[in-house]
Design brief:
mainly alpha, 155 residues, 54% helix, two-stranded antiparallel ribbon
């Protein structure tokens, strides 16, 4: 079973709620999913899912599919989803690590971080010198960005 962006978004939201008692807002969830996605590409050399890609929206990177269909609470993974998550332990550990480190960051701070001048979001928005919303953020830009320790600046 290949896990989808929505399943990973739900997992991140569920981990934050169960482990830390935090109900993530939509913007927080999008940014944690983006960090998870970026770290997976740079550290594990593979995107965690292929059904959605981050786009450059006004408040930072957004996965359109998960933004429209984020988890309703309380959410509990199905037994099939739990088995699928456990079957990919490196992604499960990465999701757990991202939630542990960033669950308490407010949405505005995560959005400000995602707007950094040298970040993939900014490159997508200002590609070709013409600002535009909704452009897909390059996977190569994401991988390069998350491959350096500087991606944490501002967090």
């Amino acid at each position: 079973m290949e896990l989808s962006s929505l399943e990973y978004a739900n997992l991140i939201a569920w981990l934050a709620q169960v482990k830390y008692g935090v109900r993530l807002g939509k913007t927080q969830l999008q940014k944690l999913l983006y960090i998870f996605y970026g770290r997976a590409i740079s550290e594990l050399e593979a995107p965690p899912f292929r059904d959605d890609a981050p786009k450059a929206f006004p408040f930072g990177p957004v996965f359109p599919r998960t933004y429209r269909r984020s988890a309703s609470f309380p959410y509990t993974p199905t037994p099939e989803e739990k088995a699928a998550f456990v079957a990919v332990p490196e992604m499960m550990k990465l999701a757990t690590d991202v939630v542990e480190e960033f669950h308490s960051f407010p949405a505005f701070r995560l959005s400000e971080w995602s707007h950094r001048d040298n970040g993939p979001w900014k490159k997508a928005v200002y590609r070709d010198g013409k600002p535009a919303w909704g452009r897909e953020i390059s996977q190569d830009d994401i991988q390069n960005y998350f491959s350096t320790p500087d991606w944490r600046i501002g967090l």
